[in-house]
Amino acid sequence: MGNNVWMPGLLYRYMLGELLRVFALCAAVLVMVIAFGAAIKPLAADDLIGPLQTAKYIMLAIVPMLQFALPFAAGFAATMVFHRMTSDNEILAAAAAGISYRRILLPIVALGAALVIVMVLLTQWVIPRFWGLMHHNLATGVTNVFQASIDKGLPFQIGDLQIWADRLRVQHHPQDTDAQTRLILFRVAAAELDADGRIVTDITARQGVVDIHQRGGRTYLKLTLVDTVAFMGRTGELVRTPKIEPQRAIVVPDPVRDRPMFMTQRQLLALRKRPDDFSRVNGHKIALAESIRAIEVWNYIDDQLASDGMIELAGPDRRISIHADQLVGGQFSTTDGRAVEVRQLDAAGPVRLVSARQVDLRPSVGSTLTEPSFDLDLYECEVVDLRSDGSVNYRARLTIPILTLPQQTWPDLSKLPHEQLLKRAEQMDGAVKSRARRLVEDIRILRLEIHSRLQRRYALSLTAMLLLLLGATLAMLLRNSVPLVIYIGAFVPSILDIILITGGGHMVRSGAVTTGLIVLWSGNCLLVAVLWYTLARLMRN
User: Fold this and answer.
1) Which stretches of the chain drop beneath a pLDDT of 50?
2) Which candidate among 12, 163, 299, 449 keeps its CA 20 to 30 Å from the CA of 396?
């Protein structure tokens, strides 16, 4: 009885010692080769700036590559060790001593279970952080990227905004702001692009300032342009303004925070509950908030016209009163078809009276959710000078820029949770409905992506244990074959397993959740089936 207990313990320690030694050697070789392969793309793209950064990138890549190296190293180690033990009749001797194949494989099962736990910890918590460190290692900073773009005569692009400049001066820690860095641009051109890459608004400025702020681990750009001329692509007119200063800062994309691939399990689960924290969702939420705010402003002006017959707007050095009956689709009109009257006043009193056949109100460049501003376009105008003898002249078109609604406060709708924002959008039509559908769809896609990524990580973790067991059982069954041939027998279904895991993950992301999960886990089911068949033949023999 004592020998029967002692013999498996000694055998287990011997097997595990041999297996761990070969496993460590195989894993070290595989992970270094795969890590170097991961560095080929940034090396070819000239993203790494020197040998030290290259070495650091490869060292950081070792940890993420473990998710691929460990399963195959485990399978190869099990194949080599058990093939040698079988060829030397050590397994046969243990079986003859009364130790069943199940008991022989017991330490392999225990090692496989430990490997699954290690893989789960790596894929769900450790590896995402190292992906982030790898990308931070390649990042050279906003200031350097901006400087390089200007020096090469290329535009600096962030989101749907492109900025050109003749030259740039960097000022660190400017005294009049809490920004860490200020970029002073000379002879600036900025373009706002639509989803198809077409220019919506084109602005030229004598000088521009970009303040770079670092808050909460994120980078924000605050842009100011002075002495500007804006070309409105939708209407085709030029608008000259002394200063354009958008109130909302530009958030610099951070791949570590803006891609689920770089997020730990805890971060993914938190993001699934609060999708508003995701930059892509937040961008669509802001777009929806802007559409809702435009409708609310339009309705407010229309209500004022209905009650008072006029609305007053304020500019930097003027006041404008518009006498009309209604505002429909951004156009003022009267019920009896008469011309719309627009009076301009300054601090001294009335300046001019304009009677126009068509008066359009549209958001101006720099309009924000909390401070909406407008440009007023007047067509077929009869202009009366109220400061002289009442002389009259005619203008085909007249634009009055940068007007606001005085003494009216507007809350920032982008701060609301998306549920409240979507509820506000339910009673609205047009662009609001379209953007609401886009926001809902983006949240759905994000949650599917999170679900897909979590399932893929778990499935890949289980593959390590199955490949370890499959390599051991095949080595015992095919004792007369070459070890490399045996390993190929385990390698081929494992490759198919990874392909199915990846393909099933993509299916889940595309919305076919049930089918995708079946495909995703079918790879592991295939390995279980091959393992079961191998064990059955081994027991029979």
Assistant:
1) 1-6, 47-48
2) 299
Residues with Cβ < 8 Å from 150, sequence gap 6 or more? 156, 164, 165, 167, 168, 185
Residue 271 located in a structural domain: no
The answer to the question of residue 266 being in a domain is no
What residues contact 69, with CB distance under 8 A and at least 6 apart? 27, 30, 31, 34
How many beta carbons lie within 10 A of that of residue 182, not counting itself?
20
Q: For 448-479, b where at least 16 C-beta lie within 10 A, e where not — what string?
A: bbbbbbbbbbbbbbbbbbbbbbbbbbbbbbbb
DSSP 8-state secondary structure symbol assigned to residue 126: I
Q: How far apart are CA 275 and CA 294, in angstroms?
A: 24
Predicted pLDDT at 48: 46
Backbone angles phi, psi at 217, to 5 degrees: 80, 5
Best CA proximity match to 78, nearest among 480, 458, 491, 461: 491
CB 91 within 8 A of CB 82: yes
Q: What is the DSSP letter of 50?
A: S
Boundary of a domain, candidates 199, 230, 252: 252
Which of 225, 252, 279 is where one domain is finished?
252
How far is Cα 509 from Cα 520, in angstroms, rounded to an integer? 12
* H helices, E strands: number in the chain: 14, 15
What does the pLDDT read at residue 541? 65
Find the domain containing 408 and state its range: 291-413
269: in domain: no
Q: Give the count of domains, the chain.
A: 3
Surface-to-core class of residue 79, CB atoms within 10 Å of its CB (0-12 exposed, 13-18 middle, 19+ buried): buried
Question: Phi and psi dihedrals of 398, rounded to 5?
Answer: -140, 130
Rounded to whole angstroms, the Cα distance separating 26 from 72 reads 9
Evaluate whether residue 423 is within a structural domain: no
**Three-state DSSP state, 238:** strand
- pLDDT value at position 136? 65
